[in-house]
Amino acid sequence: MDEIVEEISRVHREVGTRRVASELAGTVLLRRTFGADVAEVWSAVTSPERIARWFLPVTGEFRAGGSYQLEGNAGGEILECLPRERVRVSWLFGPDPGFSEVEVRLAAEGGGGTVFELEHVSVVPEEFRSQYGPGAVGIGWDLALLGLGWHLTGGGLSHEDAVEWQASPEAKAFVARSGEEWGRAFAASGADPETVTATTVATVAFYTGE
């Protein structure tokens, strides 16, 4: 349990909004430092073989202007790719996904580490946002960064073992703690306390099945 608390505390979270054309998009930002250097982290987040080891199997054309598809999850276009600096993709899931983009940014940190930022910008139906809040995507990204951190330190689980782990008490504790942290970030963005509480409870229940 101590490891779970430590992993959660390593991530800085922000919630905000951004105007996209004529629509208001929600944003979630995660920032943390990994001990690996930029070249190693870049390889881990852009190599199809390595992505499959800490996230999901992926296929596509891995170049700017190419497309990708994560197994059973999102797909889209690779909109921008500056090696060892940033990659931006459209993040589309379902029959009518609307606007959704994810950008990963890397920067060298003193001592040989890497500052990792992930920002997800999306336009979602108001009824969904009011029910689940930013934790709906935030918890998923916390789980992804947990897997990436394990991978970069030589640990981690196979895809099959990771699916099994997500039903474990440890995983449910991680999700609950992640949901609380996203609730704090939501409150810091100006959300009212009742909305924060309701969306946190709903989102944690969705992820844990409880």
UniProtKB/TrEMBL annotation:
InterPro entries according to UniProt: ASHA1/2-like_C, START-like_dom_sf
Family: Belongs to the AHA1 family.
Protein's name in the database: SRPBCC family protein
Organism, scientific name: Streptomyces glycanivorans
Pfam families reported for this sequence: AHSA1
Domain Activator of Hsp90 ATPase homologue 1/2-like C-terminal: 37-143
